[in-house]
């Protein structure tokens, strides 16, 4: 995985150019510029530990409800999926845009847009490629929550699937929660939601849990594990859960003037519902647009 990251930097993908080392303080005493605490983050000392030397805030980049515009492109490739053990692919485009409501509250919007390549699952149905159901999420995030940052709000499902195989084309809604803490080099948290959509035989009742643990190291590198656990409440208990186990490595860096957060992870689905692949490779490139 280290080799994958290193090769992708030159093409604006995974791994970075050289770090920018901050100059040492001059002997002559100069007026000190006040250090501003980034919104929705930990204490200044914690941020300093999490921030790599290339001056990109790694902790803010890894915060899904950060007070910063970002556009993650997350590609998930599942191996040995379905009865024919084929490969399926889901690209998630998830622009995150915060809106400052007042001095105490920020609304963080997150649009999940899936582009799906589905293999053949039966003799009567071929593969399918197209757009799945869009799921916009809205998190109301208080400015001061202590050491734990919490966002809570609704999420929706829009009937945008280009084929019935790619999603239940019904309106839907449900609650969404985000919680995290930054402790030194650690960024630990969870995203959780449950979606209800449709009625009768064409409906959705699905729980999604996305715990994440990141350990930041020198030069913007970090170790990461962020499995996506799902439970389809409409299926029998024996075929309801999908539980991946695994992780990978990432780096926060700059390509020219553009800050980027890139990572690669490999998961083994130790528990999986019917049709889900046994392994999954996840590659994410996130464009960051911090407030200047």
Task: Note the gap between the termini.
Answer: 33 Å
Structural class: mainly beta
Largest sheet: 15 strands, antiparallel
Report the average pLDDT across residues: 84
* Tally of DSSP β-strands: 15
- In DSSP terms (H or I, runs of 4 or more residues), the helix count works out at 3
Range of strand content: over 45%
Rg estimate, integer Å: 20 Å
Structure description:
The chain is mainly beta. Helix content is 6%, strand content 52%. The protein has a 15-stranded antiparallel β-sheet that branches. β9 and β10 form a beta hairpin. The longest helix has 7 residues.
Task: Summarize this entry quickly.
By secondary structure, the chain is mainly beta. Helix content is 6%, strand content 52%. The protein is globular and about 55 Å long.
How would you summarize the topology of this molecule?
Blueprint: H1 2-8, H2 44-50, H3 58-61, E1 69-81, E2 86-93, E3 96-100, E4 105-118, E5 128-131, E6 135-142, E7 148-157, E8 172-183, E9 186-199, E10 202-216, E11 221-225, E12 229-232, E13 241-255, E14 258-271, E15 279-289
Antiparallel strand pairs: 1-2, 1-15, 2-4, 3-4, 4-5, 4-6, 6-7, 7-8, 8-9, 9-10, 10-11, 10-12, 11-13, 12-13, 13-14, 14-15
């Amino acid at each position: 995985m280290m080799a994958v990251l290193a090769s992708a930097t030159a093409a604006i993908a995974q791994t970075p150019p050289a770090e920018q080392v901050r100059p040492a303080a001059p002997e002559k005493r100069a007026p000190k510029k006040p250090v501003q605490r980034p919104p929705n983050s930990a204490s200044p000392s914690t941020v300093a530990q999490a921030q790599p030397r290339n001056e990109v805030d790694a902790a803010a980049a890894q915060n899904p409800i950060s007070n910063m515009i970002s556009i993650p492109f997350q590609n998930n490739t599942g191996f040995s999926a379905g009865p024919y053990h084929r490969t399926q692919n889901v690209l998630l485009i998830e622009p995150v845009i915060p809106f400052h409501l007042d001095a105490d509250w920020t609304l963080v919007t997150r649009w999940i847009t899936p582009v799906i390549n589905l293999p053949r699952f039966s003799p009567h149905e071929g593969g399918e490629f197209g757009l799945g159901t869009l799921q916009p999420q809205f998190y109301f995030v208080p400015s001061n929550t202590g050491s734990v940052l919490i966002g809570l709000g609704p999420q929706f499902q829009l009937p945008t699937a280009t084929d019935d195989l790619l999603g239940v084309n019904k309106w839907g809604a449900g609650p969404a929660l985000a919680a995290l803490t930054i402790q030194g080099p650690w960024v630990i948290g969870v995203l959780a939601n449950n979606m209800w959509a449709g009625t009768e035989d064409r409906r959705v009742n699905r729980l999604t849990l996305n715990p994440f643990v990141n350990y930041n190291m020198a030069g913007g590198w970090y170790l990461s594990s962020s499995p996506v656990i799902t439970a389809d409440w409409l299926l029998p208990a024996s075929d309801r859960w999908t539980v991946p186990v695994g992780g990978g490595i990432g780096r926060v860096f700059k390509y020219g003037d553009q800050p980027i957060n890139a990572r690669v992870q490999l998961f083994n689905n130790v528990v999986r519902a019917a049709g889900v692949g046994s392994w999954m490779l996840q590659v994410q490139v996130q464009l960051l647009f911090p407030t200047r």
